[in-house]
Input
Amino acid sequence: MIELMENLLSWYRQNSRKNLPWRKNKDPYRIWVSEIMLQQTQVSKVMPHYQRFLEQFPSVEALAKAPLTSVLDAWSGLGYYSRAKNLHQAAQVIQRDHNGRIPDNVSQLLTLPGVGRYTAGAIASIAYDRPAPILDGNVVRVLCRHFGIEGNTQDSVVQKKLWALSAKLVPVDSPGDFNQALMELGALVCTPHSPQCSACPLMKSCIAYKRGWQDRIPEPRIAALKKQILYPCGLIEKNGRFLLARRPLTGLLPGLWEFPGGEKETGKSLEESLARSLSERLGIHAKPATPHPVVKQILSHREIEIHPFQCRWNGRRIKSAWYPETRWVPRALLKKMPLTAGMLRLAKTL
Output
């Protein structure tokens, strides 16, 4: 075990991605924000958002005091918007219950909204040098291959074994570097497909390498079937401006903007469903006319098929009953709005 730790730390200090902005110092706030952003999101996608987010919300206090809508707008493009809501709520808890200081131990970190066992361990070890274990997708892959652990990694027995291994491995000295080394090895070398075993500092002791099991460990996850949603929306234009509406702050894609619409109703056509949605959600009577090309948006458990229609509107006053806010936006500024990913693709076609 000691040799494994030493080899991994030595490799990390020579090969780590030192350009990652959250590695510039051990500021707990910067580390916390990065860990939340990196949940189920690739580094390349997080990079352009991270610095902008910190410029807008440079501290726990600034984040706690900001309106939720501002946080959601700043999060636009990262997906999984419940993370932004939890981050905002957790900042308020930290400000109120911890005098603005992010807790330095796993038990207290776990009380924060959106912080699970992995995130708590990452913050405690990286920011505060606490010997706390971590277990994310990269670490799971490294541990399974190195120790020859077979079976479904989501199974509770396998999970318990992996957490025990991670806890046993993490050293008292430099626990943050060691945990980051495990993650870095999984991200750069021990990749899901075609791992670069010859460049791995743990190759000599890796069971999967010795037995040629790299492709079968860990066991591939079976993708869950996605719910199909047909979502007709209205392109309502007035004096060169399009009507956009902010989605409610709860539910799917909270607080983001969209061309107003709603899910297709069973037994009704797309046009009928859209006309009803516009009536119920905005209090307007608009007749769907010219259809535009369909746009798809893939979420973790849903596949949304957006059906846009140019609409004829009688110009009567909007009385929003479902959308908390509406706005008329010039065509040239549509793509700068914090739209849902599918609606952003639609806006670019306009």
